[in-house]
């Protein structure tokens, strides 16, 4: 008002002075800056916007870091891939095999240079000498308990980062003691150099960038936007009066937008700046991300610093745009509160929620990535709009509560029911955290339950016999290799052969008479059912079939090249590392595994992917809990001022508990029930679509119980807050 008065005096007439456009916008910004510094009721909004801006900026930086990491991975993968060629232009022989350490699979690259003076693969300072092996730092660290540095031969050092798609990749380059010859060459590729994309190493189990961004957006991005919506709509009587005054002075939505930007700029800028702090260590050194165990390449992030600056600018703009868009007043000036959330629930939200559910149901008819995109998109829409459905249901229930309170003369029911009818948006803001939180918790549980029957059987087998039974497989194993292996095994270990050719009646296990007796089996030159025996024989039957037969092996071991494998049985556990070392010294690219280890490795790979879901879901759940806390705090402020005079009219402080019970607790309980039903359907439908995993009703019941306790706590705290405010309330002339 002082500005208007001053401008009138400067003109010397009754006509107000109209400042220039630039000066007007600057004055409006100053009004907004001043309004954001300590006005009553604005401190909650300041910190809410601060947290929302930080959350949006973290998500934006996460997207940028993901893109930069994938770009760096693709460039290094392209540089190290072998270029296949003919014999005339070949400079080296190349072969890929697989091994595992701690149920984590890694690639073992066998290389044999053919011509001197050629460049080794990226990441190697020189070609390994015959019988040498070079390992990635992560493989050397993780495999230390399993003596990985001596498994493939003499340890010759580590692979540089230039030869690894990420610092956490597990990879080994091995040169066999002797060049391949005879039929061994059939498994090797002739290469003319390196510099072509080739699936190997960590890239074999990685997921496309689109899936990662989709998961990040659904599990963390949506909760961040939900926090922004709630923070922008946190009520403030001072802000509402200011908006009404601007409208009365002829201000348009543009003028109100400038004031709102000025008010929100400081907390938004501070929150955006705060998001940079977790990024700084990752720019300086390689950081391991819990609980995934993945090491971020700091060089990739430093190379993408311009994109990160742009992401911060965009996130800051998104925060301010959200504040402007979500703060609207009635054109007639009769209402200054945000209209869409306080007077009615728009019908399009109900139709949008139905469309999201329909999209989820339709996703079962799509396969691959389109089906996943449809399911995820429908899930995001459903979770975002489901609270509005709960608000409509609560509003209808509120009419019944108010009518019943009027008939019975109970002011708490009457007031609480009418507030629920007039303010359904309160239920929307409070229910967002609970509804989406229920969905996140149950989806994380379903994803982590996708172990599979075979993996569960392998885990049980491991508990029973451990590494007492090992499978040694390679197409290059010869009878001479079998004899040599039997002589180099640790004491108490024995060798058998198993042929599982599908054309024969059943799998046939052969071994010396002494070895068979060690297993509790009878000696026979003719195949006999492998009945009886000890626990190791029982596990062999479980994995190779109950039709397993056994007989005494002839003097010359026979092994089917395609369907045969060597079985090593040990009298004591803990011999696997020595068996692997002996096997790799005889036959390159051999696979030494416990029974069912392939399924355990697959389950571990899936669990590591699920850890990313757990990471993003946990961050999203934390943001949703913060959203619920902000909403509850905002509602307490409103309830405190509005309910205070009721004690004069009713003569009792018990009305506060009754009003908050019917206005807050009961609608939230309804939202919990609706969210629980939809979450159960959503999770069971997902399991039926992927045909894997299990749904824990106990987890859902626990989550529903937590939401119910939160609903009761919100009502109790609201009642206590209003009761305390009533004791200090005095009539004023406003």
Task: Give a verbal description of the structure.
The chain is an alpha+beta fold. It has 4 domains: 22-79 and 208-341, no CATH class; 82-196, no CATH class; 344-449 and 602-734, no CATH class; 468-572, no CATH class. It is 59% helix and 11% strand. The protein is built from 24 helices and 16 strands. It has helices at 2-11, 21-35, 42-80, 137-142, 209-233, 237-248, 253-274, 279-284, 298-303, 305-326, 339-342, 347-362, 368-408, 411-422, 424-448, 453-465, 479-488, 513-518, 535-544, 576-586, 597-643, 646-650, 654-690, 697-728, and strands spanning 82-84, 92-101, 104-113, 132-135, 154-158, 171-174, 189-194, 288-289, 294-295, 469-473, 493-499, 508-511, 528-529, 549-552, 564-570, 591-594. The strands form 3 sheets. A 7-stranded mixed β-sheet has the order 1-7-2-3-6-4-5. A 7-stranded mixed β-sheet has the order 13-14-12-11-15-10-16, with helices on both faces. A two-stranded antiparallel ribbon has the order 8-9. Strand 4, helix 4 (137-142) and strand 5 (154-158) form a beta-alpha-beta unit. The longest helix is centred in the last third of the chain and has 47 residues, at 597-643. It starts with a helix and ends in a 6-residue tail after the last helix. The model is unreliable at 1-17 and 332-342 (pLDDT under 50).
